[in-house]
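Predicting holo structure, zinc ion bound.
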Amino acid sequence: MVQFQIQWVGTPNYTSGRGGRAPVAIVDHITAGLYPGTLNWMQNPAAQASAHYLILQDGRILQLVRDEDTAWANGYVERPTWRLYDGTNPNRYTLSIEHENLSGGHLTEAQYQASLWLHKQLIERWDIPISRDTIIGHNQIDTVNRPHDPGLEFPWNRLFLDLQEWQGGEQGVETWKEQLVAQARQAGLITEYHNPDQAAPKWFVLAVALNLLKKLGK
Ligand SMILES: [Zn+2]
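Done. Tokens:
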């Protein structure tokens, strides 16, 4: 069994405290860039960007911002599909994990195991339920500018299955619903992961209809 540990690296890019809020969800990201450049960027004041954690491809876990403080990871919101978004800055009530990878890349096995371990730590520490509303992708906060963050290759199903097995409960979405979403994606009706239990806004219904028409060659 590999022993994981968190290495503090820090960054000036954060806001002290959380404005009275507590974390209610974990947001998973992909850096779309490699270490050390991606860390240097998040430590550069000009970037005005950061995350609480950065998981490297070799499985190392770096911490830039304390859980109790606000990281600058998803302040910009556009057409969100996240059900717990309440109209205020999501950075205030989320914990953000960046994964070192090129856009569209697969996590390494060491990186996946480190991420799984970190998710468990944060779930226990902050009492975060294992659900598609409380463990989300950046794309669910900004569907317009971040559609591929963390991207289609992010191992959501594996992560949820491992977390559910760890917790030993019946939480989470049933497999058949997930399979339906996966089939719709393979068929080209949708282009992103979507929470099968989530209500669909009009733009989403229309997008699916247009994708279907395109498939039919109309
Ligand atoms: Zn992101």
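The pocket of zinc ion is lined by residues 29, 138, 146, 149 (CB under 6 Å).
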